[in-house]
Write a sequence for this structure.
């Protein structure tokens, strides 16, 4: 079983920046997608950014131009750079690695709290 550990959350003022990291406990083989999800109290979990092992990137409209995701397949890590943060970005952020096609796995991190408040 692979463990995913997120780090980098915290309290930041509106307009500030945070960088979240996701580290896997060992190499993850196969074709997969690294996704960053967030869930605010009383709201459904939302996929905000994803990057495939081949480098295809997608963002939800609300974070386009502000968030940037990347991954280092050799180091088994991923990141989410969040700039110009807004109070509505406040949530628990989780990283997820999901296998695609014949690769059947779905790993989740424990989550890290991001709070945007003045």
């Amino acid at each position: 079983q692979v463990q995913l550990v997120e780090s980098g959350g915290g309290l930041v003022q509106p307009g500030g920046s945070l960088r979240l990291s996701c580290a896997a406990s060992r190499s993850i083989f196969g074709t997969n997608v690294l996704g960053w999800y967030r869930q605010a109290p009383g709201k459904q979990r939302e996929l905000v950014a994803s990057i495939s092992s081949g480098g295809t990137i997608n963002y939800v409209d609300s974070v386009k131009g502000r968030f940037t995701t990347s991954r280092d397949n050799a180091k088994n890590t991923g990141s989410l750079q969040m700039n110009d943060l807004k109070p509505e970005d406040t949530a628990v952020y989780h990283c997820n690695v999901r296998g695609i096609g014949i690769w059947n796995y779905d790993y989740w991190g424990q989550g890290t709290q991001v709070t945007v408040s003045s």
Q: What stands out?
A: The first strand starts at residue 4 and ends at 7. Residues 28 and 113 are 25 Å apart (CA to CA).
